[in-house]
Each structure stands twice: as C-alpha cells, then as structure tokens.
Amino acid sequence: SSSSSSSFTSSLSCLPSELLGLAFSYLSCPVDFTIFGFLSKHCHTAMLQSDVMTVSLPASTSPEAALSIFRRWKALSRVSMDNCNQLTSEVIRELGLTSPHVQHLSMTDAWFLNDLNMNGLVHQYRDTLISVDFARCQRASFPAISLCQNLISIRLARCMKVREKTLETLFRNAKPVLKEVDLSALNITGVTLASLGRFQPQVESLKLMGCCYINSTDINRYLELATAIRELNLVGCSSVQHLAAPLPSCVSLHLGAGSSSSCKVSSVCENLQQLTLAWCTISDSDILRLVLANLQLTSVNLSGSPVSFDTLITLYKKCPLLRHLDVQSCRHVSIPRSFKKADPLRSLADHVDERND
Fold first, then answer.
1. Confidence (pLDDT) at 135
2. CA-to-CA distance for 26 and 157, rounded, in angstroms?
3. What separation in angstroms does the CA of 48 have from each of 43, 45, 75, 238?
4. 241 falls in which pLDDT band (50, 70, 90)?
5. From CA 21, how far away is CA 43, in angstroms rounded?
6. Structural contact between residues 54 and 81, judged by C-beta atoms closer than 8 angstroms
7. How many helices (H) and strands (E) does the chain have?
8. Kind plus residue range of the DSSP H or E element containing 168
9. Residue 252: strand pairing partners
10. End-to-end alpha-carbon separation of the chain, Å?
11. Of 14, 19, 201, 243, which one has the fewest beta carbons inside 10 Å?
C-alpha cells in the first residue's frame, strides 16, 4: 500500500548513503530498479545531498548491475570492486565518465583488468587518487600509476607485471605524502627501495612480503633514510638475514624467511608492540634483547623458531601487556607438548605459579 511504502521510505531516510549504495549493488539488472522505485528515488536524493559517496560491489555483481549503479550514483569518491571478475571494460569506462574525481579505488583480484582498460582510468584520476589497492591484479602493469602525485596509500602486492621503473618514477614525482606502501611479492631490488627512501622518507608502513631480491644491505640502507617507519613486514624476504638499522618509531616488526635461514636483529627498537620472528634461526640472546628493550609488547609470534623455554618464561614475566603468543612448530628445543597445544600464555602462567610454589 501507499502508506506502507511511505513508511518504508521514511525508514530508509535514516540510513547512511553508503549503506544504501550497498543495497544497489545487489540489484542484478535495470528491471530491479523499476521494481524498487522508491529506493531508487531516495538513493538519488541522498546522492545529490552527499559530498562523499561510497560504493562497494560484491564479487557476484554483473556488468549490467555495475553500469546501472555508476549511472545512477555519480560523483563517487570511494569505489571498491574487489573480486568482481564478471565486469568488463565498459564498466571501467562508465566509472570514469560518471565519477571523474574518485579518491579511493580498490580492485583486488580483478583478472579482467589489463593496461588497455586501466591506463585511461588511472590517468584520469592522477590528480584525485589518494589510495589505490590493485593487489593480485596480475594482468596489468599500471604504468599510469607513476603519474599519481597525491597518493597516501598504494597496494600493488602480487601485481607481477609492475616494473621497477614505474615505481621509481612514482616515488620521485609524487608529493611527499605517501604513508602506506605494499609491494609484496614483486620482483623489485634495492634500486626501488633507494628511490622510495630518498623521495618518500615519511612512509610509515612498508610491506615487502616475499620480495626475495631484497637483501640485508638494501633494507638497512633504506631504513637509514626512512626514520618514520612504524610497520615493517619482511616475512618471506629470504635474503634479509641481518637487520641493523635503527627503528625508533617502529611498533610492528615482522620477520620470517624460512626454517633454514638465519636472522640477526641488532636494530635499536624500543617501541615495538607486535613482533614476528616466525621460522627464523635466531638466537635466544637476540630474542631476549628485543624483549627486554620492548616490555610493552602485546603480540609475539615465534612459531618455528629455536626459542628456549626459559626465554619464553622471561618473555612472560617481563611483558605484562602480552596478549598473544604463537609458539607452534618450535621443534628445535624441548617445550612441553601441552604448552604448545593449549593457550601458551595460560600454560606459562601455570608454569610460573608452580615454580613459585
């Protein structure tokens, strides 16, 4: 009835525009919009009144639905199309036509993306993009990304066709506002890191997981320039075996190369809250030095490492804020089986109590 429709529409007016945008993403074709005309009208009104519009498309979104959304919701600033592999180049062109000032763009795992359908879009957004996430888009090299000057966050993990020259140009030409960088699993070398450290020393988060061509010298030289680093993830960087550069601002450090790789940490770190040394052949003395310098630790991952039980006891006693401890697969030393299977922290507490008794 008209009264029930009016009541429902009134209820919708209380919802944020972003939530209504999600409702649109589940409508499979233009016919659905005529069925839900009252929803369409309300969303259109909200769209015109809002300065910031967000649309997040589910993976099952069809090209027809995406086209309808972009034609009805114009001037979008944040768009997410993660895992949307049914979409086409026509959808990309429509987004560029209807929303010329997108600031946040996420298109992870999008196998339909290539340089033909992405270069024009990225080039169009070169002055507006603040954050991009193209992780695992392995068919595109994104050369136009080097033109984006206002990026604060960039994620290109596993974009295997991205070239070092593109990244070097991006770091050199971009304004010094970049804060978060994820280049995990890319075939980059110390040349890229040198460019990042020289032109973007203010970066706070750097993820290089699986970058096997980065070595100890490369990362230490970079860290001498990038003193603002708060999060550093080098898990899988098998050539990084010695971390020596100071990390005065770092609160999250993640290392782990493999059970056969040695890892020495002599960096000065005094603000760590999260520490990962998984599958590192690291000495107890290095672990203890890090622990005693960072009594504020809340999370520690030592899985697969040759840590001793006495070191774990020291860790438990000295770090009162510790809430997470991972010691799975620590087979190189004698640790009670019940300790590894049960909650490690509770097991440590019981063990300490028994010793005190």
1. 96
2. 28
3. 9, 5, 9, 52
4. confident
5. 8
6. no
7. 14, 14
8. helix 164-173
9. 231, 274
10. 75
11. 14
Q: What is the pLDDT of residues 296-336, one digit of tens each?
A: 999 999 988 888 888 888 998 899 999 998 888 876 555 55
Report d(CA 263, CA 276) in Å as an integer.
12
Q: With contact defined as beta carbons under 8 Å apart, do 324 and 298 qualify?
A: yes
Backbone dihedral angles phi then psi of residue 261, each to the nearest 5 degrees: -100, 140
* DSSP-based three-state secondary structure for 176: coil
For the stretch 65-104, pLDDT in tens is: 889 888 878 888 999 999 998 899 999 999 999 999 999 9
Burial readout 91-107 (b: 16 or more C-beta within 10 A, e: otherwise): bbebbbebbeebbbbbb
Helix, strand or coil, per DSSP, at residue 94? helix
The pLDDT confidence band at residue 116, using thresholds 50, 70 and 90, is confident
Q: Which of 72-86, 111-125, 157-171 has the highest mean pLDDT?
A: 157-171
In the DSSP assignment, the letter for residue 275 is E
Contact 20, 46 (CB under 8 A): yes
**Token reading at 112:** 């339909």
Q: What are phi and psi of 155, to 5 degrees?
A: -130, 115
User: What confidence tier does 355 reach under pLDDT thresholds 50, 70, 90?
Assistant: low
SS3 category, 337: helix
- What distance in Å separates the CA atoms of residue 335 and residue 348, rounded to the nearest whole number? 11
The tokens describing 186, both together, are 């890319």
* Angle of CA points 205, 59, 184, to nearest 5°: 25
Distance CA 322, CA 68 (A): 50
